[in-house]
From TrEMBL:
Organism: Ridgeia piscesae (Tubeworm)
Location in the cell: Cytoplasm; Nucleus
Similarity comment: Belongs to the translin family.
UniProt protein name: Translin-associated protein X
Key word Cell inner membrane present: no
Domain of life (superkingdom): Eukaryota
Compositionally biased residues, Low complexity: 163-176
Gene3D superfamilies hit by this protein: Translin, domain 1, Translin, domain 2
Annotated InterPro entries: Translin_C, Translin_fam, Translin_N, Translin_sf
Transmembrane segments: none
Sequence positions that bind Mg(2+): E127, E221
Length: 320
């Protein structure tokens, strides 16, 4: 009995693929419903491909923004102006090469559907450009300035269709316009042709919450530069950065109903502020007791230890 039932089950499973093929063969490709779902499939494939392209661009933006930040950390003394100019050129190149492509991808799309695809690159870019502007002008870049920098103009020529009709009948006289045009062909051939140009404004959406996330990351770079400057013998920069960090921290604390990611970054911001305040306290209170070269060596060692401890769990904000 068991053999017979097993044989029956095997025959049933053997017949399933053939039945499935028969059902697929019975599908009418000309059916309106099938055509409708084929269109949905095409739309979803197109959106998924565009999403992946934007993700790749965001990764490139993240990498290049990190390089700009590392470049700005190498500022010292006589090389300040040269490094600031070099960083400015790299930011312009990043906008024209990468962000323009993102804007072209999003030109006819709902930006909110693709926001998660480029949010990591946007936050890293805001961190880099705000870091550059603070070092150059001692001001904080606004969300309006970031949005203005991510606006692009695309020009395209408008092709005009000819309204004149031609005929091969020799008995029919050509239009007057064509007769006049043939007489002036020599003059027109020498004159440059001017076609109407259509300009389209493209932009990349910069939500205020993502702007705040980028500014929160900026505070970590200011903390690193402040501690590193002590090791280089600059004891005034930590106090300048400490005042700025306090202003930013007070503004962030005043926010209510923040999401989990912003709350986590505010916690990191508080830790960065505490490190700078501790450094300023040490300089102010014990600066007269300890020689400056010993303070510089102690802070340079602590900076290296902090960087090693922070690089271990890094990469949490590049969540694709």
């Amino acid at each position: 009995m068991h053999r017979v039932s097993a044989g029956r089950r095997n025959r049933r499973t053997d017949q399933r693929p053939t039945r499935r093929k028969e059902n697929e063969a019975d599908v009418d490709e000309d059916s309106p419903v099938i055509k409708l779902f084929r269109g949905y499939q095409h739309q979803l494939d197109r959106k998924h491909d565009k999403y992946e392209r934007i993700v790749k661009l965001s990764r490139d933006i993240t990498i290049e923004s990190k390089r700009i930040i590392f470049l700005l950390h190498r500022m010292s003394g006589e090389t300040t102006d040269m490094i600031l100019k070099d960083a400015e050129d790299k930011l312009k190149e990043l906008r024209e090469e990468k962000w323009r492509q993102v804007a072209e991808e999003l030109q006819t799309e709902d930006h909110h559907q693709y926001l998660r695809a480029y949010t990591a690159g946007l936050q890293e870019y805001i961190e880099a450009i705000s870091f550059w502007q603070f070092l150059k002008e001692k001001t904080l870049i606004s969300v309006a300035e970031v949005e203005e920098g991510l606006q692009f103009i695309r020009s395209s020529e408008i092709k005009e269709e000819s309204t004149t009709t031609t005929t091969d009948d020799p008995t029919v006289a050509p239009p007057v316009e064509s007769m006049v045009s043939t007489e002036n062909d020599a003059d027109k051939s020498n004159a440059p042709e001017s076609q109407p140009v259509k300009t389209d404004l493209m932009h990349v959406l910069v939500p205020p919450t993502h702007y705040l996330l980028g500014i929160a990351d900026l505070t970590g770079e200011l903390m690193r530069m402040a501690i590193h400057s002590i090791g280089q013998g600059d004891f005034d920069l930590p106090f300048e950065h400490c005042k700025f960090l306090r202003i930013i921290y007070d503004a962030f604390v005043s926010f209510g109903n923040v999401d989990r990611e912003l709350s986590r970054k505010v916690h990191v911001l508080r830790q960065s502020l505490q490190k700078v305040e501790t450094a300023c306290y040490t300089l102010q209170v014990r600066g007269s007791e300890i020689p400056k070269h010993m303070l510089a060596e102690a802070f340079s060692k602590s900076t290296a230890d902090d960087l090693l401890s922070e690089e271990a769990p890094s990469g949490s904000n590049v969540g694709y």
